Amino acid sequence: MVDLGWLDSGTAYFGSRVDAVDLDLPSGLPGWTGRHVAAHVAANARALGRLVHWARTGEERPMYASPQARDAEIDELAAGLSAAKLATLVKETAGELRADLGRLTGAQWDAPVRTAQGRVVPATEIVWMRTREVWVHGVDLGGSFEDFPGELVDALVGDVVRMWGLRGQGPAMTLRPADREMTWHVAAPAGGDDGSEVRGTAAGLAAWLTGRGPAPAPDAPAIGRWL
User: Fold this and answer.
1) pLDDT tier, 85 (very low <50, low <70, confident <90, very high otherwise)
2) Which pLDDT tens digit goes with each residue over 35-63?
């Protein structure tokens, strides 16, 4: 049984942020207003719905025709809809995706689909892709990683480390949260030493690693993108 709990609570969280802010104002993402964030999350629900269709039917449906098509859809929605209609679209598309996921059964959850980055993953990964989308973009609309369930924060940090590992990306370091009895190790891209130890709260580390917060210490290494 696939657990949709974090997805459902994240959908509610993002919806609450949409309702709480003025979407015409700048968001936490450089160059994007709240309109762009809302449009992106609505378009993402549609895109992931295409992957669910792929898993259910075997008919290949990529998330986006191209990166340019993705960006054009976000710009069109952000410019063409009122804030109220964007908020409605966020809720409607989230509901449609949730219903589509609820129709997947048995082996369909294991069916291979391809992410926008080109990775082939089982359909179960769609749930995590959407979970991180709604929670993290909630931060872009004035939320905080402190709002997240603790285990979700840990999963996000682990996801960044995993993605860096898949890309052979560094820098090498050990992430040691001050409020957890655990560590995460980022391997050096081409061997070498174990790098520095970076300490901070788990929420602070998650914010930094996902590009939503400052480095937890002045001597923390420079990091690259997450997704």
Assistant:
1) very high
2) 999 999 999 999 999 999 999 999 999 99
Within 8 A by CB and 6+ apart from 98, the residues are 4, 7, 8, 11
DSSP result, the chain: ----HHHHHHHHHHHHHHHHS-TTSB-SSTT-BHHHHHHHHHHHHHHHHHHHHHHHH-----S-S-HHHHHHHHHHHHHHS-HHHHHHHHHHHHHHHHHHHHT--GGGGG-EEE-TTS-EEETTHHHHHHHHHHHHHHHHTT--GGGS-HHHHHHHHHHHHHHHHHHT----EEEEETTSS--EEEPPBTB----EEEEE-HHHHHHHHTTSS--SSTTPPP-----
